[in-house]
Amino acid sequence: MTVTDAFRSLRASSLGSSMLLDDLLERWRSALVSCLPRELRRLLERREQSLIVAPQGATARVVLTRGDESATLGELDPQAPGSLQAVLAGAKGASRKTIVQLAADQILKREVAFPSQVRDNLTQVLTYEMDRLSPFRSDQVYFGFRVLDDSAPRDKLQLELVLCLRAQVQDWLRRLRELGAPVDQLTWEGAWPKANLLPPDERPRRGSGPFSMGKLFAALVLLLAAAALLSPIWQMQRMRDTREAQISELKARADQVNQTRTALEQARRGSAAVLQRKLEQPRMIDLLLELTERLPDNTWVQNMDFRDGEIQIRGESTQATSLINLLDEAPGITDVAFRSPVVQIRGSDRERFQISLKYKRPGEG
């Protein structure tokens, strides 16, 4: 049974009845236990024993159920001394529940209809109307009912009424109560789940042990309530941790992007500086063309060096001393001077010279 089916069944069975708190808690317990893991559910079921007493004339067949397991304990003869004690000795258990199960031919069933206005007082209405609905008075029978599927008009309640004669079971109820096994449930073969013909005031009070199902159920309810309250907090914590991890990852990526951007900017600036310096340097081809046009035909340039913005020219000429004036007149050439004294070449009319100068292309500042 799913949780939805369990609660739907609870709603349908509670319509129009003044169900006691114990019955309501029992149904809620069954619905919640069905949601537990299988091993835990079986552990809880095994703690609860049911002693089923099925009257068969003067004797009764006794079956002990524990979870999904069942075992026949024997026959009961309430008139035989010690018979009941001997059978009950094999069914000891703190959570034992005693059930009297009647045969199908020992009960009376019928369907009845009532106005929907009496849904909150159906037990009292059935008690008052019992002599009209059956051949017996209400003090002669045990009865129970359930609301059938809502196929009737909305202003009608369709019920299934089940009853049995008190005389059939009173001796069994009394004897079991005297021997320490009071009856919790009076049912019949083929009954609907949790059907009980015993009135609430004749059912024994259970659940006084420290590990009773009632207390275990209450603890389970508290645990589920705590889980329901803490679950949003836990989910928000997980979401916050996830967001913090994502933010940290994004920050790391942003740092990498900034570092890459800084490196690219430095490389760009370095490239721009190189280009700027290259643009600022004089073009040697222009200087060579200027020297070719300015220097006389009897002058030979043997070596030309460019270092730190200064140009040095070495060569030979028959007019070495006049080269200073010639070069000073050239556009873009400045600071013309001899780097060393002019030396006469032995056996010739040529002089060896070394001149330094600075050169900028014409038009530059």
List keywords for this structure.
365 residues; alpha+beta; Nucleotidyltransferase, domain 5; Gyrase A, domain 2; 3 domains; 5-stranded mixed β-sheet; 5-stranded antiparallel β-sheet; 9 helices; 13 strands
Shape: rod-shaped
> What is the CATH class name of the largest domain?
Alpha Beta
Number of helices: 9
**Count of extended strands:** 13
Low-confidence stretches: 1-20
Q: What is the CATH topology descriptor of the largest domain?
A: Nucleotidyltransferase, domain 5
- Number of structural domains: 3
Tell me the span between the first and last alpha carbons.
98 Å
What amount of the residues lies in strands?
A: 25-35%
- What's the overall average pLDDT, rounded? 78
Rounded to an integer, what's the Rg over CA atoms? Answer: 56 Å
Helix content: 40-55%
What order do the helices and strands follow?
HHHEEEHEEHEEHEHHEEHEEE
